[in-house]
Design goal:
Helix content is 50%, strand content 18%. It is α+β, with helices and mostly antiparallel strands and 143 residues long. A hairpin with a 2-residue loop joins strand 6 and strand 7. It starts with 10 loop residues before the first helix and ends with a helix.
Length: 143
């Protein structure tokens, strides 16, 4: 149902969708959440027109609460489906970007992106997700 006007073109749009997927929100709350997470405050002109496009396309409902015309935006069922399709699309892009930087724990096989625990065992430097896996690996090698 994505028309030309409803492309997710930037991080602000993506953040709005993911935030609404978790919970309904006021536009101001979305602005504050994005600012807290990124350190950059999006302008109202980045947030409200996108919310209006979502509403016009039936992807969000807006309910007025309290005074001053404040609205709480919440995803409709069609909106949830739309966001989940975007999450799949973006997760495959992120996965293909991150995959090359992953290593596998020598003991449990979990994928490690950053950090982890490096240790030399039997003259070979191995990477583990944590020191507990390194210890378990050393024990298994002794047995």
């Amino acid at each position: 149902m994505e028309d030309e006007e409803l492309r997710v073109r930037n991080v602000v749009n993506l953040w709005i969708l993911l935030s609404l997927w978790r919970n309904g929100s006021h536009g101001y709350e979305l602005i504050k959440e994005i600012e807290d997470a990124t350190g950059r405050r999006p302008s109202a002109s980045q947030v409200y027109p996108f919310l209006q496009k979502l509403e016009a396309n039936g992807l969000v409902s807006a309910e007025e609460t309290g005074g001053r015309g404040k609205k709480v935006y919440a995803l409709t069922e069609e909106g949830r489906t739309f966001v989940e399709s975007k999450m799949e699309m973006f997760s495959s892009v992120i996965s293909s970007t991150v995959e090359k930087d992953l290593t596998v724990c020598a003991h449990c096989g979990c994928k490690v992106y950053q950090g982890g625990h490096r240790e030399t065992v039997g003259g070979e430097e191995l990477r583990f997700c944590c020191s507990h896996c390194a210890e378990s690996y050393r024990r298994a090698m002794r047995d």
